[in-house]
Each structure stands twice: as structure tokens, then as C-alpha cells.
Design a protein that fits this description.
Layout (H helix, E strand, L loop, with lengths): L1 E5 L12 E6 L2 H12 L6 E6 L14 E5 L6 H9 L7 E6 L4 H9 L4 E4 L4 H18 L6 E6 L7 H14 L5 E5 L7 H5 L19 H6 L2 E2 L5 E3 L13 H14 L2 E5 L6 H9 L2 E6 L3 H17 L6 E8 L7 H8 L3 E6 L2 H10 L3 H4 L4 H13 L12 H8 L7
Parallel strand pairs: 2-3, 2-4, 4-5, 5-6, 7-11, 7-12, 8-10, 8-11, 12-13, 13-14
Antiparallel strand pairs: 1-3, 9-10
Length: 410
């Protein structure tokens, strides 16, 4: 059996394994067929070849699609037996034939074909057939779920947006992850500034009540940064965010997790139903503080609320942003006050940040060796190990009442 691999990087579709295609044809016939298959940009294919008379054992697993040449030159009984011996439940068999007559089509269907395509292959017909098969397969198979990292701070000016943007960039640059940023800080919407992009679309384009979202719709709402990081932008007008429900946000994030390795969510400083929906899905919850009294007070208020929400499976981790040596409020005091260790500390470096913003580039372009850049890479390293949880549903008020043993509806 010959093996031919063709893999293209997905641009936003759900992350499933490639569609396994087994081509059964003699070498003279297979050359043109392989050439046409090689022109497809989607779906992602894993191609193998076998002669009609070869052994039926498939060491690399069953095929999703068997494409076999069917015509007067083949021993049709032998073709029927060979095709029937391969594949398994759910395998789609496509007969490739030159004869377009009704009788020939009937014979191909009797030989076990589920679909018929005519030679020479038309690229559009081939793409439509394989995309349809691939989408049906995806509905049957569980998608690979990426990691979700959310960042928040109830104290304004702590640097949540800058940290979220650079965390995503570090994961893309130094860890080679496929990353998407979701700007859920609807009041500010500053991730567009942090990434120096002007999105034409955003989360508002996905706000269609009663319409079931899919990955194609989500992909169309994303903006690609030069680093490869994708951005789901906040609405351009603050008042437009009132139309976006927490339920819709949850559905969008669930799809985004199927499309990339890591989703980084900027929640800003406002806590509402959407915040809880995100926390329920989070594998990592990062609370951002700076070395100030107001930041310590805000962190305590946050911990008090989070403890009453009864969200299982995730605990807030603290990142000290804008750290400077010999500050009046040092790291030991912060740890003692919080009663929790720090995940990491990010040094203050206004010069590198301003230089990056002025040039419209990220830190990995303008200051790759700076202590600030390396600190983001260190944070990225700590967040790289993925642990997945199943989210619990419920709004912010219902969770507080449940924690206190009361029923808000009673």
C-alpha cells in the first residue's frame, strides 16, 4: 500500500483529524486522480492508495472514504468484493467512472458505491462531495477541545488587556500554539489597540438569536493578527454590547475552543453573568494585580465573591503585573495579604510597551530579549499544560443563592 499525505493548516474550522481517503486504482489511473485531489484546499486529507487485488488489511486504521475506479476494464465482481472487504461502518464509497449512462451508474451502486463521480474529475464536484462527507463525520465525532484562559481584575488600570494580548502572543511565538483572543471587555474593547488591528467583524456578527452557530460563522467574525493570533473583537459601540447574551458568549467560546489550541479571554474589570459563563469554562483563571493597596483590596473582594459562586474545578491564580524591585509593597507582603502564591511577576517596562505600540509591532519583533518579553514566555510555559473540565451552568445570582443554601425561585 502506498501512502500519500496532504495536510493543510486549518484556518478556523473545528480541530478534528484529517479525512482518511483510500484510493483504489491502478498506477496509470491514479496519477490524474491524485493530481486533482492535491488541488483541494479543503477538507484536510490523509490519503492512501491500494491496488484492487491487494490484501484488505488496513494497518493505519479504516478509511472514511474509499474512492475506486469502476469501468469496463475492471473485473466488476472483483471490484465489488475488494471494496466490500475494506472500510467499516460509516465508510463512504465513491465510484469513479467515465461511463455516464444510467445503466453504468446502476451497476456502480450495485457494486457498493454510495456516490458516483465522473472521470476526469471535476474539482468543484470533488470538493463538494468530500466536504459534505467530512462535515457529516465531524458531527459524529467529538471535537478536540482547546484550553481556555480567562483574565480579570476588578481594579481598573491593572493591565488585564496588555497581559491578555501578550499572553496570547507568547503562546503563539514561543509555544507554537494556535491561539484566539476574545475581547469581552465590552466597555473598553482595547484589544484592537493592543494588537494594532482594525477588525471589520466581531462578536456582534454572531449575535443572531435562534440561529445555531457553527465554526464557519465564528471564523468569519475573527480578525487575524500578523503573528497568527486570531481576535474576536468587542462591539465598536458600547451600547451594542447590551444585545449580546451570556448564553451566546458561551456558545461562541465553545466553538472557538474547537478551532484553536488556546482561547485567551479578556474580561476586563466588570463582573456579570458573562463573567461567570467564562469562568465555568476556564481551565485557567488569571487575576491580575499591581503593587498597590487598591489592587489588594480589589483582590480580596474578588476572592470573597468567587468563593460564594461555587464554581468547581478552577481556582484563581494571581499574576503580579508592573513589578519593580524595592517597591514599598513588596512581593512577600502581597503573598501574605492574599494568602496565596503568585503564579508569576511581570516587570514594569513602559519603554518596551510604548516602543511596540509606536511601531505597531509586538514585543517579539521589537524587544525579543527584553526581561518583559521573557517574563511573558515564562507565564506561557506555566500555562501550556492543558487540563479540561466540564462546565457547570448557572447565573451569578443563582450560584450565590445556591452557595448560601437558598433557592431564588422559592
Amino acid at each position: 500500500m502506498a501512502h500519500v499525505s496532504r495536510s493543510s493548516e486549518p484556518t478556523g474550522g473545528s480541530r478534528h483529524r484529517p479525512l482518511r481517503v483510500l484510493l483504489m486504482a491502478d498506477p496509470a489511473q491514479s496519477r490524474d486522480i491524485r493530481a486533482t485531489l492535491g488541488q483541494l484546499t479543503e477538507p484536510d486529507l490523509e490519503m492512501r492508495e491500494a491496488d484492487i487485488g491487494s490484501a484488505s488489511h488496513e494497518a493505519d486504521g479504516p478509511a472514511d472514504v474509499i474512492m475506486f475506479v469502476f469501468g469496463p476494464d475492471q473485473q466488476r465482481a472483483g471490484v465489488t468484493a475488494a471494496v466490500a472487504a475494506r472500510g467499516g461502518e460509516g465508510t463512504v464509497r465513491i465510484a469513479l467512472m467515465r461511463d455516464r449512462s444510467t445503466q453504468a451508474i446502476r451497476e456502480a451502486l450495485r457494486a457498493g458505491a454510495d456516490e458516483v463521480l465522473f472521470l476526469p474529475l471535476d474539482l468543484g464536484d470533488l470538493a463538494r462531495a468530500l466536504i459534505k462527507i467530512n462535515e457529516s463525520r465531524r458531527l459524529r465525532e467529538p471535537a478536540i477541545s482547546g484550553k481556555l484562559i480567562s483574565l480579570i481584575s476588578v481594579t481598573g488600570g491593572a493591565g488585564v488587556t496588555t497581559l491578555a494580548a501578550n499572553c496570547a502572543l507568547a503562546l503563539a511565538h514561543s509555544a507554537g500554539k494556535k491561539v484566539a483572543l476574545a475581547d469581552l471587555d465590552f466597555q473598553s474593547g482595547d484589544l484592537t489597540v493592543a494588537l494594532n488591528v482594525e477588525p471589520e467583524h466581531g462578536i456582534l456578527d454572531l449575535n443572531e438569536p435562534g440561529v445555531r452557530l457553527n465554526s464557519v460563522q465564528v471564523e468569519s467574525a475573527l480578525t487575524r493578527h500578523s503573528s497568527g493570533v486570531y481576535l474576536l473583537a468587542a462591539p465598536k459601540r458600547i451600547e451594542e454590547s447590551e444585545h449580546i447574551s451570556a448564553v451566546q458568549v458561551g456558545a461562541v467560546l465553545d466553538l472557538m475552543r474547537q478551532m484553536v489550541d488556546v482561547v485567551v479571554v479578556d474580561l476586563g474589570r466588570h463582573i456579570n453573568e458573562t463573567s461567570v459563563v467564562v469562568w465555568e469554562r476556564s481551565d485557567e483563571l488569571i487575576y491580575v494585580i499591581d503593587p498597590s493597596i487598591s489592587a489588594m483590596r480589589g483582590a480580596w473582594r474578588f476572592l470573597d465573591l468567587f468563593g460564594r459562586l461555587n464554581i468547581s474545578g478552577v481556582e484563581p491564580k494571581f499574576v503580579l503585573n508592573r513589578w519593580v524591585a524595592r517597591h514599598p509593597i513588596d512581593e512577600k507582603q502581597i503573598v501574605h495579604t492574599l494568602g496565596r502564591p503568585l503564579l508569576c511577576r511581570i516587570p514594569r517596562d513602559h519603554e518596551s510597551i510604548e516602543h511596540a505600540l509606536a511601531r505597531g509591532e509586538d514585543l517579539w519583533k521589537v524587544a525579543p530579549r527584553a526581561a518583559l518579553t521573557r517574563s511573558y514566555e515564562g507565564l506561557c510555559h506555566q500555562l501550556s499544560d492543558t487540563h479540561h473540565r466540564h462546565a457547570k451552568r448557572g447565573g451569578i445570582l443563582s450560584k450565590i443563592f445556591t452557595r448560601n443554601g437558598a433557592n431564588p425561585r422559592s
